[in-house]
Structure formats: C-alpha cells, structure tokens
Amino acid sequence: MVEAEREEFCAFHYTNTSDGKCSTCGLSLCNLEQHYGASADRICQLCFNITKARKTVRYVQISIWVVIIALVITLWQVLGSGNVIYALLPIALILFVPYILRPLIFRLYFTNLLPKESILPILRYFEASGNNEHYKIFMKLLKRISEEELDEIRPALYSYLIPALAFNFSRLPEDWEDEMTTNLRVSKEDFVQIFTKDYRKILIQTSVHNAQENLSQFLIYLSKTADDKELLKEYITEITSAEIMALSENDLNTIYGKLLEDVFLFEEQFYELCDELNLEKEKVLLAQLLSRYEPPPVPKNQIEAVMTPTQLREKRKKERETASLPKEIENLAQDDPDLQLILDETEEKDKK
Ligand SMILES: [Zn+2]
Ligand SMILES: [Zn+2]
Q1: d(CA 196, CA 287)
Q2: Ligand nearest to the CA of 14
C-alpha cells in the first residue's frame, strides 16, 4: 500500500487534492471549502461551524438562566416568605445544563458535514489535544460510516490515525483496542499489521523525529502484539543514527528532548531490548546520548508547575547566569587574593 501523505488530500474530501490550509486549525482543504473568517482568512467548515456555534450556545445558556431566575421569582411569590428555601430549587437545574448542551453542541459543530467528512478532522483534533471528548466523537463517527465508505476512506483514515494514536497512546481508554478494531471492522492482527507493515516507515520516522511522551511504549506494544522484534531494532537504530549522534548538545536537547525523555524514563527497558536484539553498539550509543541529555528541571513552586520544560529550562539558565556567587566562596576569596583574581577574571569574561 502506498503511504499517503495527509497534506496532499483534503481532510474533508479525501478524494480531492488539497489546495490550501485552514488558517485557524491548519487542516488541509480543497476547492469545496470556501468559508472565510472575520479577517478574510480561509477557514474550514468545522472552524466556521464552531465560531457560529459559540454564539448560539451562549444564547441558549442565557435563556436557561432567564428561565431559572423566572422560576425562582414565581415560586418565591407563590410560596410566600415562609418557604423561600423551596424557591431556590430550580437552581439545581444548572446541573443538567451540560447534558442539554452536549448534543446541541455536537449538532452545531457538525452542521453541513457528513460523518465521512468529519472523521479526519476530528481525528486531527484528537491528535493535537489528546482530549477524551474528541476520541469519543471519533468513535461515534466511525460507527456511523458505512462499510463501503469505510473501505474507500481507509488509506486516508490510517494516515491520520497513526500519528493520532502514537501521540496519545498513554491517554487512550483501557478498552481502546477492542473498541477500535470493532469499529474499524478489522481483526486485531490486521490492525497491528497496518502499523507495522503498511505504515512502518512513517511510524519509525514519527517516533524518532517527532517523538511524544510514551511513544516508545506504543512501539513496544506494537512489536509485542505483532510479534515483530525487527521493528524495535529499526527504532533503536534510527535513534542512534549518525544524524542524531552528530547533533550539538543544544540541538539534541531542544529537537529531540521528548525522545530522550522517553529513553531516560525507560532506560533499563531500552538496555534490555539492546541485549535481547544484539544491539551492542547501539546500547553504547544510547548511553552516550543519555549522558548528553538534560532532564527537565523539577518545578519549585506553583508558578513553575504550569511552565513547559523548555520554559523552565530557560528560566534555570537565566537564574544561573544572574545568580550571585555563593556567600562561602565570596568569604573565601576575601582571604585569598589569588582566588579573588580568578573570580574577577571570570566575571569579566561573563560580561563580554
Ligand atoms: Zn479549521
Ligand atoms: Zn474539501
């Protein structure tokens, strides 16, 4: 099977060649998408629907509140001042608002979109967000697609599904495999084969050059399920390829930070795999890569807890640059002219 590049076809009409991207979400579009946003940028049907839906949803929310307040006032007057507490009961209706709104939002978002037109976009949303709601909608749409449509869309669907699953492997619900294979109408064996045979190259390339958290675990899962040890061999060989080994410390930590984080977290498992697969040279190279890896700093407070590892790393770097010398060294230097001289010199150099 040819590995279809998903940028080449429209995400909404997989049989059409793409001629641009949505300026909001980046999905590939074809000449059938002619919606424009507030600043005249071309947007997809989904982004168009979402913008419109937000207004409608706000009106519905306001209306629900108006009804609740009206009910409270009416009850208050009917019941008299002795039973004020009962008049507040309608406020409990707020609890049901999400249940009223959810199906409405779903309908508004997918207005003018058939299941087969919505399925790739929602998969891409899931890929980016890892949001469980997006996953559920994807499953719902998958169920609604006819057998014929499914066979037609399969190659396009898989090129979207592979990164979506690989990037979110740790966020998938426990029973994902059963649900997925049932709705895709394939056997578990065939399902795993799709990844390890038809999309093998994309999978290895993505896992190494565009790694995400726990992606190594996804590959280990696939290799076990498909009984394909060669897959992990290729994966580890790619991680320790000359291209990556030759990178500067900085490039290695910024571009391949996620990949190294996985190797760092599952270090023992990686070494065991190397032993099992007779990858002696690669084992040494992996250790070498790890020795050049800076694990993300541990957040010290609430503010740092919400920062990304890259931001935190930058902050630590700045702190190190601006930090004054520890008091002990300064005290020592006062009694030792030679040390004082060295300190002054390094300070001069830093300033330059
Ligand atoms: Zn869009
Ligand atoms: Zn299209």
Answers
A1: 27
A2: 2
